[in-house]
Write a structure and sequence with these properties.
Layout (H helix, E strand, L loop, with lengths): L1 E5 L9 H11 L4 E5 L2 H14 L3 H22 L3 E4 L2 H9 L3 E4 L19 H11 L4 E6 L9 H6 L7 H5 L6 E5 L2 H13 L35
Parallel strand pairs: 1-2, 1-5, 2-4, 3-4, 5-6
Helix pairs in contact: 1-8, 2-3
Length: about 230
């Protein structure tokens, strides 16, 4: 199973349909697409800045922003199957479908480790990859991704959120952060066709000591807290 996160910045990018088409054609039974929040999440940030409401409310609105982006992606590529929970993901994959995740199960009634702007759709894609014991996580960005790179460098540059590097600690799968340029699309395509021979410049290898569990750590985040589950 591959988790492929399509950044919200791709929502207005002319290359987006090519990525969706490639994943729909090659990802049956194997790929789970995670949408970013796109302009819908930007609207949440703006509303919170204006009205000053709490981060729990902003988190739930941002999750709904991801769901709106999922509907947008589905409209562009109807061969993707919209699902909202882990059991439905597994059923759709067993049926040979390409999954498009709406993370409605991440709506919260009370604050926890994920109800913060330090946790964006990038870290939620990582959370899902660990929950589902994924083979690989590919995060696709519309901006330039310099290579070689480390997760710490990407976090410092603002290309991934502040929790991503922490939650990647001990991941049992490789993590790739790529551009939406055609060269990276072809590399991802080759990976889906060729399996373990896939490699990208700047590949981020899994760290030692992976636990693979998906338990939810609630409360205040420490310096090396695992992702929620």
């Amino acid at each position: 199973m591959w988790i492929v996160k399509l950044g919200g910045s791709l929502a207005r990018d002319a290359r987006l349909p090519r990525w969706l088409r490639m994943l729909a054609e090659l990802g049956g039974g194997r790929v789970v697409v995670v949408p970013g929040g796109a302009a819908f999440a930007d609207a949440v940030r703006a509303a919170q800045g204006h009205w000053g409401f709490d981060d729990l409310t902003a988190h739930n609105m941002a999750v709904l922003a991801m769901a709106q982006t999922a509907h947008l992606l589905h409209a562009l590529e109807p061969r993707l199957t919209l699902v909202s929970d882990e059991d439905a993901i597994r059923r759709a994959q067993h049926a040979g479908q390409v999954v498009l995740w709406m993370p409605l199960s991440l709506l919260r009634d009370a604050p926890d480790i994920i109800t913060s702007w330090e946790v964006t759709s990038d870290s939620l894609a990582l959370w899902l990859a660990r929950r589902l014991n994924a083979e690989r996580l590919v995060v696709v960005k519309a901006c330039e991704v310099k290579r070689p790179h480390t997760l710490q460098e990407l976090s410092a540059a603002g290309l991934v959120d502040g929790r991503f590097d922490q939650w990647a600690d001990g991941a049992a799968f490789p993590i790739d952060v790529v551009e939406c340029e055609d060269r990276d699309l072809e590399r991802v395509r080759d990976g889906l066709l060729g399996g373990p021979s896939f490699a990208l410049p700047g590949l981020l290898p899994p760290r030692a000591g992976a636990s693979g569990d998906g338990r939810l750590d609630r409360g205040k985040a420490g310096p090396r807290r695992k992702p929620p589950g």
